[in-house]
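New to this. Please check this protein:
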Amino acid sequence: MAAGLRSLLVWVAIVFAALVAADVDPVVIKGSHFFYQTNGSEFIIRGVTYQPSNSSANEQADPLGNLAASVSDCMRDIPLLTQLTTNVIRVSYIDPTQDHTSCMDQLQQAGIYVLVDLPTNLTINSTDPTWNLDIYNSWTQRIDALAKFNNTLGFFAGNDIVTNSSNSAAAAFVKAAVRDLKAYMISSNYRKIPIGYEINATEYYDSVPLYMTCGGNASAAIDFLGISDFNLCSNNTSSSFEALTDFYGSYPAPVFLADYGCRDAAGEPRQFEEVQYIYGNNVTSGGIVYEYFPDDENYGLVSTSGSSIIRSPDFTSYSSQIAKITPHSTFSSNYTVTNTITPSCPTGASFSASPTLPPVVNQNVCLCMMNSLSCAATPELDSATALLAYQDLCGGDPADYCPGVYVNGATGTYGAFSMCNINERLSWAMNYTYDSSQCGNDANATIQEPNNTIAQCSEVMAEAGYDGAGTVTTFPTGPIDYTPMQEASATIEVNGYSVLSQGAIAGITIGSIIVLALIVAGAVWFFCKRGYCARKRRSMYQNAESIGSESPDQTRGRRGGGDGTSFLSDDSTGMVEMQPGDERYLGSRSNTEVQSSRDEGSGPGSVGEVSIPHQRQHGPTSQHSGPELVTPISTKELPAFRRQDQPEEKSLASMKFLSPVAQVLPVQAEEN
């Protein structure tokens, strides 16, 4: 029993020792130096840039990811990196959707830490800088991917963004990024991982590093500074390093060479004589040699052939030089921070970045703004299209056209919603710029019902102001919901104008179509109904008067036979042809009958209506005047031309006695 317990304790101790060995000591910053957090010894960077070439024209490779090729390469390369006494690799790109545990754990076991560049295709642009939710979300995703590993040394929030006085205003946006990323890690309960910036030593050498640590807001100051310098060759190494150490001797943050390794002559192997200067002073905290993998200019320490690695002459030279170093180091407990004075921010025509930084990135503020709008960008609009539309709206005079999303790092002028994502900024610009009709006519815009009932948003919108030029200092603490296209009324306000909502417009359109369809259907029914009644009355007249039997080939409803010919009276001199259905030769009616006919004329059968089934056919001799009236045949009797006891006769011969000829007004057809 005791032996079994001892065996169990031994295994527990082995597992615990393995876990301790695998979980490296995090690196922290004190003053201008890196230190191991637990043992307090100084951490000097012996680094190599570790970024394979792009796998395609538009796709970067993640060397730390969980893809089989990346894991295999990571395992393959770690022994060579340790042969160079490497303790840091710099990675320019990671895919936040991949898992990085396998490679990061292997690097931990080898005592290798990782520095990661946050910028990818979403970065702070030198000539048109902005700091917004699009960049923020991209960068925080990369922080999320690596924050859990103790061997994550830090993140670069930009490199060589400011290169001269004309784009120096972009420095304000870098500091805003540093401020917000630090706040994000605190809110996410991550350990304090350093965030820094890289400058090019040959361009704008002094003002930028001073600006990155100036001012009273320590949360916006960079934690470290990397210097990219490819001019430290054998012929000027001493003088260059003397200037560098003089300038950064009192810098308040750690300084190291983020990229170095110049070539004395094209095509010649690099000698790396600068290594002795980099590690032979007490100002710089080491450096990162460029680079492990080969590039188009043959800067690689190795070359690859399939899965095989071939050491280049540069590998041999660097290995020899790094083995000679004896860096100056100290312990945290023995180190007293002396450079405690915060530098003043640079001023003058040569450097234009304002000490006033862009607004804090806050998604809830943007959602409050979106809820207040009557006109917004369509939710499905892609970022590229939204950016073009935004530039069209605000590009002419952004300070005047779009003050709520305007930015100027030189004057320190920033719209309250300038930190929102591109679709939200476009939405604000549309709502501010468009009149009552433009929003509905823009395919990229949509009309929505504003929601001004969110209590947390009232103070936010009041601080921002109508034009969005105010400064928001009150941030909603709870989640803000934004559900677009909630149209509660027929009219809404767009930039102060009352316009129809999309639901109202759709309702009017559909209603108009339905009404038009009913009108057409009613007209068809009406005319069909009229024709049916006329045919029915003509048939009744023919049956009642016994004009003659209907032959099988006769067409129903037509007088004079199936061929449709006219019939004439025997005494046709001076008379016109009498067409089928023509009543102009019937006797006159009484005044009562005439008035009755006139009264009925104001109804549906009045002059001007057309009855298609009874369209009149006039012969070439027709000479009547006045409007043509198309009606059913009258069944009125003609008492003036027969005795009361004489039965009505409508034979052809009897028509001779209809003299003088009198035209009888047609009788209005009766409705069924």
Remarks:
- The first helix runs from residue 2 to 22.
- Confidence is low (pLDDT under 50) at residues 1-21, 486-498, 532-664.
- The chain has 17 helices and 18 strands.
- The two ends are 113 Å apart (CA to CA).
